[in-house]
């Protein structure tokens, strides 16, 4: 028969050993704490701050020391919702802010402020309203760097005793009212149209200036070309006249040759199709008389083989000379008559030499 007392004693011993083992495990578990990198742990002994645990393996006194929630020591980025802000010109704008901060003292962040995230948000909102309230809308839209700097300085000073360091504050968006946005868009559109019109006018002005300059240069070059051509033409004519003049004087022409060339030039006077009246100069008769005298003189200079009276010429040479002389005299008389009739029919024409005035 089994001894009941000894069996109960064995069970008690086994239970006690189990309790002791569980107690030891619990003690060991509560004594050892592993802190991750970039985190810090606050240890309280009997409800009072005892020390700050660094990353790594740390030992605590079980049932005496208590570890508070770990504090993140990395730089944190917090984006706050849009906040309505009234500007100096009484316009309500919505401003989104982003704050970059880092916990530098875990003890101060735990004991100096209850909720440092909420405190940073409220402090950012009040400081933002204070800074933007002294600016108008145009300055608020164009002075972001100035606003960011003022916010960072104020937040860094206020959060220093909380164990925080504010490294950067950014305005993510500034949204004016819709009516103001429409007005701003119209203003910008008008400004762009004005600049476009100015640029177009400047381009047109430059184009006209260049075209005028091109025309001026072209006219100058054309005038220079005409000048050079006229000079060369005049030089050529002068040289031609000089050569003709020298040739004439070198040939020593007599009155008969000049009269002959004068008669050759007369048909050119009436060469124009628009000539309705041809005035024969009085010098034409003199020229014809000269030609007749020349032919007559040559006829008289022809030697005769037999003494024959001048009234009875014989031979083909004498007959040709007399016919030419007669024709020249008739032409001179006809030209003289035509010139006289022309002077009579033309009013205001002076009488020629040898004519009755």
TrEMBL record:
Residue span, Band domain: 30-188
Biased composition (Low complexity): 318-337
Gene3D superfamilies according to UniProt: Band 7 domain
Annotated InterPro entries: Band7/mec-2_domain (IPR050710), Band_7 (IPR001107), Band_7/SPFH_dom_sf (IPR036013), Band_7/stomatin-like_CS (IPR018080), Stomatin_HflK_fam (IPR001972)
Pfam families in alphabetical order: Band_7
Residue ranges of the TM segments: 6-29
Region (Disordered): 297-357
Compartments in which it is found: Membrane
Superkingdom of the source species: Bacteria
Entry membrane topology: Single-pass membrane protein
PROSITE patterns attached to this UniProt entry: BAND_7
Chief location category: membrane
Record key words, sorted: Membrane, Transmembrane, Transmembrane helix
Ranges of biased composition (kind: Basic and acidic residues): 298-309
Family membership: Belongs to the band 7/mec-2 family.
Designated name of the protein: SPFH domain-containing protein
Species of origin: Microbacterium aquimaris
């Amino acid at each position: 028969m089994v001894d009941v007392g000894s069996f109960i004693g064995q069970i008690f011993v086994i239970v006690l050993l189990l309790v002791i083992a569980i107690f030891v495990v619990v003690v060991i578990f509560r004594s050892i704490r592993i802190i991750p990198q970039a985190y810090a742990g606050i240890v309280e002994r009997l409800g009072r701050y005892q020390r700050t645990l660094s990353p790594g393996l740390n030992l605590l006194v079980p049932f005496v020391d208590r570890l508070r929630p770990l504090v993140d020591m990395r730089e944190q980025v917090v984006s706050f919702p849009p906040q309505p802000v009234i500007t100096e010109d009484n316009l309500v704008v919505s401003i989104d802010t982003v704050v970059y901060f880092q916990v530098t003292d875990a003890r101060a962040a735990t004991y100096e402020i209850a909720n440092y995230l909420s405190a940073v948000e409220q402090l950012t909102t009040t400081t933002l309203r204070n800074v933007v309230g002294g600016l108008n809308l145009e300055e608020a839209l164009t002075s972001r760097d100035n606003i960011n700097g003022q916010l960072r300085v104020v937040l860094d000073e206020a959060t220093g005793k909380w164990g925080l360091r504010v490294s950067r504050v950014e305005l993510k968006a500034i949204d004016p009212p819709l009516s103001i946005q429409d007005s701003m868009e119209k203003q910008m559109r008008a400004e762009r149209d004005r600049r476009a019109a100015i640029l177009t006018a400047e381009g047109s002005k430059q184009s006209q200036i260049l075209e005028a300059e091109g025309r001026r240069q072209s006219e100058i070059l054309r005038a220079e070309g005409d000048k050079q051509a006229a000079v060369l033409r005049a030089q050529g004519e002068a040289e031609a006249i000089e050569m003709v003049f020298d040739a004439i004087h070198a040939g020593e022409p007599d009155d008969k040759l000049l009269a002959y060339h004068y008669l050759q030039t007369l048909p050119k006077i009436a060469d124009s199709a628009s000539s309705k009246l041809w005035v024969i100069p009085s010098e034409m008769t003199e020229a014809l008389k000269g030609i007749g005298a020349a032919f007559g003189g040559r006829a008289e200079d022809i030697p005769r083989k037999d003494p024959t009276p001048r009234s009875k010429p014989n031979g083909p040479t004498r007959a040709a000379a007399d016919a030419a002389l007669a024709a020249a005299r008739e032409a001179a008389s006809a030209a003289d008559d035509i010139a006289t009739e022309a002077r009579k029919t033309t009013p205001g024409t002076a009488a020629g030499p040898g004519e009755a005035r």
